[in-house]
């Protein structure tokens, strides 16, 4: 009887811990390119030196439809082959300390020229943005067109842990 009680306690603790870690990183939403939706299933966030002020910290949010290899999370060029082959589709936003999107990238095989830059059409609506956790909504204000005239838009809600600067 003791053994089954211990086993039940171990299972309960494992489920509770598993649920807690799953709650830390979650994403729901999609990227729509040329009318075709791509469900975002993975969220990443990491801090980096501020672009406009190196004494400050920017946070990069990365949302993808598949797991990203660890070396490619911080390096969009390392994701290129996966994107070109259609195995990975991503939305990336760089957020400054005030919560403004200062850069974005949208990676999809349909784009001949990588889509990115700065635009007030790409929005971050924070629920939590405290240097440890980023949570909220990342979206486009309206449908956009890539350099190749391919229409796209995204709307993603998420919560993820912010990895420290390297």
Which descriptors would you attach to this protein?
alpha+beta, 3 helices, disordered N terminus, globular, 6-stranded antiparallel beta sheet
Number of domains: 1
Average pLDDT confidence is: 87
Q: How far apart, in Å, are the first and last alpha carbons?
A: 50 Å
Reported for the largest beta sheet, the result is: 6 strands, antiparallel
What is the beta-strand fraction? 35-45%
| Gyration radius from CA atoms, angstroms | 18 Å
Q: Could you name the ranges where pLDDT drops below 50 across 5 or more consecutive residues?
A: 1-23
Helix fraction, binned, reads 10-25%
Number of strands: 11
Number of helices: 3
Description:
The chain is α+β, with helices and mostly antiparallel strands and 166 residues long. The chain has one domain. 19% of the residues lie in helices and 44% in strands. The protein is built from 3 helices and 11 strands; from the N terminus they run H-E-E-E-E-H-H-E-E-E-E-E-E-E. The N and C termini lie far apart (50 Å).
